[in-house]
Design a protein that fits this description.
alpha/beta; 9 helices; six-stranded parallel sheet; seven-stranded mixed sheet; ER; 2 domains; 15 strands; Quinone Oxidoreductase, Chain A, domain 1; globular; Rossmann fold; 349 residues; oxidoreductase
Length: 349
Amino acid sequence: MAEQKAVVITGRGQRLALQTRPVPTPGPNEVLVKVNIAGLNPHDQYVRDLGYFIGDNVPSPFGIDLVGVVHALGKDVDKFKVGDVVFGNGDPFKGDYMGTQEYAIMDVSFMGRVPSSITQDEAATLPLNVLTMYIALFHPSTHAIPSPLTPEGQSFDYKNTPLAVVGGGSNCGKFAIQIAKWAGFGTIIAIAGKAKSNLLLDLGATHVIDRTLSDSDIEAKVRSIVGDDLLHVCTAVKAPDLTLGANLLSNSKKGILVPLTAGEVDDSRLNKQAGYDLRRFLCRPHEDDRRELSTIFWKSFPNLVEKGVFKPTPFQIVKGLDADKINGIIDEYGAGKNPTRPNVHVSDI
């Protein structure tokens, strides 16, 4: 069996290492991709240090965002051909489907050709974060708003459905705003730094509220916009205290708070006569209950990117499978430094 190089998780809390591992073989409805870029995300610090997703299944590559060139086709693949330059979602629970290796498996349901309007590096910034916010808004277990790509979405009143995004200036927050604009939400409130106000308004926010204000002032400004009718809040930034997002929700109607990371709500600081739902989730399109919604999205996603509906985020380039450099970036995530999105160039492009 052919061997390849990979930067792998070696154990919980252990340093990444460069090792060799077998080149995997694609199954039905899968392709083998020669990886050009593996995109890293903040959660990769938890993967390395706490064993998120992979547990004790080590050594394992990581990196969910993939860009590469189709190298071989599995059975029943007719949507792609060898040589196609593609981008897509890896599977965080399966090492063969991750990016920090020379060759990886991709499920054809969660990938597309890189649009001609963007570069491969720009494409690498999109799959996980966009799909995360798509699922956060439109899956039945999260906000349960119908997707615009489903029959139910054709008659849904997005215009009169307000949305607030705590952490609107984060990468996921920006994509939440863009998705809401695409869907037709009439009121999109971003709580973010003042320096990002113009950018977020350009992306589709109808209002931007300064995150440095006190929680009570932020809540007052939100209520001046939507009254007591806000039923949907996303917290799109790492926040141990989720109480602000819950406080923004309606007091008289039962609303939904969907956070992207761990955190708790201090219910003693709330006044929710109708209660509220705190709904946590994991963005894994391969799950049976998310596969259909995610597959529908990926059928349209590349074309939406081509049209400029979703804007790539800034990135930095990490040359090669350099375990020391990648360890350093993940250390920055752990220290809360929030480095510019790292794109590991596994191959020369």
